[in-house]
Hints:
This protein has 15 helices and twelve strands. The protein is of the alpha/beta class. Helix 1 packs antiparallel against helix 14 (405-411), helix 2 crosses helix 13 and helix 11 (361-369) packs antiparallel against helix 12 (373-384).
Amino acid sequence: MIAALTDxxxxxxxxxxxxxxxxxxxMARQLARRGIDVEAAxxxxxxxxxxVPSWALGTGGTRFGRFSEAGEPHDLEQKVADxxxxxxLTRASGEISLHIPWDQPDDPAALRECLAxxxxxxxxxxxxxFQDGERPNDPRASYRHGSVSNVWGEARARAVGHMVGVxxxxxxxxxxxxxxxxxxxxxxxxxHSFRGALDRTIDSLAQVYAALPADWSLYTEHKPFxxxxxxxxxxxxxxSLLIARALGPQARCLVDLGHHLxxxxxxxxxxxLVHQGRLGGVHFNDSKYGDDDLTAGSIQPFQLFLxxxxxxxxxxxxxLAAHVPDLMIDASHNVKDPMEDILQSTEAILIAYAQAxxxxxxxxxxxxxxxxxxxxxxxxxxxxxxxVRPLVREARRRKGGxxxxxxxxxxxxxxxxxxxxxxxxxxxxx
Length: 430
Ligand code: RM4
Ligand code: MN
Ligand code: MN
């Protein structure tokens, strides 16, 4: 299947290459007027990597139902193959984020070989202490009333043991980070002590932290509600930072765009965490109401741009030298082909990042220095409103990727082929 994708990449270059060249020249002239060196921007774009979550390769569901697509991956090797296909097109997706136990390999060594054979790296690895099924013989070890925050030590020990095991597995696969998203919280006022739950969470995670290799990070991922609807033990960036600080320097905060109350200023949250040297990574998605997990940039592209602008400024100011934030997609697609959705999310993030790279930093600094809000706004809008797609395409073309990944994916008949070879069995995960 990779060969069919490669063919389509070449077809596009032959057919659309000249038009692309002229678009690029036009854009380069526009950027030059803004003092932006297009070659530097292309070089930066070429180094961006946006990890693909294993759980987004299959159709997601809601609590009302799930309408799976045929041809979804139903084992780990097929998931890795799908990520390799996405990366063949985008040249920015060479990393998979696994979720354990959904992706628990029977044979970790074989998985390591499979990853290497496909040229895919193991990105941050996720523990799952939010689904444990029934524990009829051991109810005190169930996550029903929480995992690391549970008042019962059996559940906490089980969650800690699971996370330590995920670190061990991730280590054998070449990962460098554990992402901890907790569903712990309460549905009823008074159900637990907020302070007690926080103490237990920190104590439990400290045991996981102690098992962390020296070159690893532990990411704490906050979320204000769902599945708990009265309180969450790690509800916001303040709690996340507090937990990370209590654990130690290798603990950092992960910002999932969908994990905020409506209208939260996420770009400012990113800036605060950068300021504290604690931005671990970002889960990109988009939302209108809650943790909607929609295609990145599909609803609030300006917010996506502003977040990317914070990342660009932070990098320029040397604040990401100690830790480069892991950029990932965390989405769930109910009505789109999952791979197409990932291609679209990746494209949206790359476009937003490229726009952020084309903000004129001296004009912005001057506007800020003169307390000139109109000029500051205009400087950002100038970049946001320009069409930087030639820049994104050129960075990808130079690495052998597609001018138009989605069109190449369709023209290559990738999904038709997986429907034929895999049938209609469902993927695991969300
Ligand atoms: C959660 C959270 C986590 C992800 C799971 C699947 O809402 O966003 O990052 O691991 O979903
Ligand atoms: Mn997430
Ligand atoms: Mn989420």
